[in-house]
Each structure stands twice: as C-alpha cells, then as structure tokens.
C-alpha cells in the first residue's frame, strides 16, 4: 500500500499514521518528524530548516525532497509506505511522482483530511508529544493517564515550538496558499479520497480502514 496523507496542520494525519502504519506494516514517513530530528541533531539541513519551521513557513522543496527520496530508496519502502506532510507543494508532488515512477512504485491513494479551522486550532493548542518515543497526545481529547508523562514509555511530554497560536495561524495560511491546490491535483489523477478530519480519533480510524478496504488495499 502506497499512500499520501494530505490535510491541514492538526488534521490528525500523524495520529492516524502512527496506528495504521503498524496495522498494515507500512513505513511511516513524516517530513515534519525528519526535519525536527535534523534540527535536534544540528545537521546542515536542520540549521537551514529551523527558522522556517519556527515561523510556520515551508522549508525548501530541495531539502525535503532530498530527505524523502533517500528514505523511499530504502528496501523497507518497497513493502509499502505512508507519507505524512509530504508533498506540500505542486513542485514536491511532481518530484515525488518522478521518483516513484523511477522506482516503479506509483501511489495507490491520497487521503485528504477535510478539517475545519475551529478543530485545527483546538487540536494544535492542546497537542503534547513524548520527547522519547514521539507518541502524540492532546490535553483534553487524548489525555495521558498522568499529566505530562507518556503512557507508553514514561517519557516527558512537550509542546511543539510551532504550536503557539500566532504560528498556527500562519501555518493555516501557508497551507491554504501553497498546499491546498494538491487536492485538485490528485483529484484529477483520480486517486484522491476525502475523509472528515473533524471526526473523533476512533471514528476516523474506522473510516480510514473502511476506505482502504473499499479501495481494495490490504
Ligand atoms: P508537520 O510536522 O508536518 O506539521 P503539520 O502538517 O502542520 O501537521 P501536524 O503535525 O501539525 O498535524 P497532524 O495532522 O499530524 O496532527 P496530529 O495527528 O499531530 O510540519 C511542521 C513544519 O515542518 C512545517 O510547518 C514546515 O515548516 C516543515 N515541513 C514539514 N513538511 C514539509 C514539506 N513537505 N515541505 C516543506 N516544509 C515542510 O494531531 C494534532 C492534535 O490533535 C494532537 O494533539 C492529537 O492528539 C489530536 N488529535 C488527532 N486526531 C484527533 C481526532 N480525530 N480527534 C481529536 N483529537 C485528535
């Protein structure tokens, strides 16, 4: 199964990908996670990316395409993958298509998480992430059993730098200006399926599994 999860920030792409990639033994590739790792390790890419990420702007197509291409060429990706947060521009979508055609691994489906702005704001301001294992929580929607502590590994929960209200607003604007055109782009290729990102976590999970099944994906 080769999928792209497309949608605004906070739509729940990372949360669903975390579970579904395990269910279907897929490689979960999040450009946001790869970039945050690069920033943490102070790599040349991380140094260049940081100021863009802090403002909620997109990092250059060149950096993200290089990171994703390296991962897609690994053998694990040939067993199936879920791309989360990539592509985000038409140029990235075209680069992706060229790389996948070269590897003879075309996309099966692009899932578009249609999500209201009200939901996005509530989700992002309340998001907390485990420093150790990366598990995603929400202070009210998906709270940890003990405040500030990860249920899975006991790691400390933190709030992302770009989950401040001003930066969130810019991320939504950037999504509307630079990413939302991909909805049409993939619709024209007849591989787009729309789901509601506003659904609660379990309901959305069921809808996604159902969508895969109806599309003949296993
Ligand atoms: P990235 O990390 O990709 O951020 P994003 O797209 O803004 O997406 P998010 O991670 O914010 O949201 P999500 O949809 O995964 O939601 P989540 O599941 O966490 O990118 C960060 C930055 O990196 C970008 O701004 C840019 O600078 C750079 N970047 C990344 N990719 C790039 C690219 N391709 N090109 C250029 N630059 C790039 O859920 C959110 C919250 O809601 C959580 O608290 C969760 O617990 C909760 N929640 C989730 N689902 C539900 C539900 N159904 N019901 C209730 N609560 C829920």
Structure overview:
The chain is of the alpha/beta class. The protein has a single domain (2-214), classed as P-loop containing nucleotide triphosphate hydrolases (Rossmann fold). The protein has 9 helices and 8 strands. It has helices spanning 13-23, 31-40, 44-55, 61-72, 90-102, 117-125, 165-179, 181-188, 201-214; strands spanning 2-6, 27-30, 81-84, 109-114, 127-130, 136-138, 157-158, 192-196. The strands form 2 sheets. It has a 5-stranded parallel sheet with strand order 2-3-1-4-8, with helices on both faces. The chain has a 3-stranded antiparallel sheet with strand order 6-5-7. A hairpin with a 5-residue loop joins strand 5 (127-130) and strand 6 (136-138). Helix 2 (31-40) crosses helix 3 and helix 4 runs parallel beside helix 5 (90-102). The relative contact order is 0.19. Residues 7, 9-15, 31-32, 35, 52-53, 56-59, 64, 85-86, 88, 92, 123-124, 126-127, 136-138, 141-142, 162, 171, 199-201, 204 line the site of BIS(adenosine)-5'-pentaphosphate (AP5).
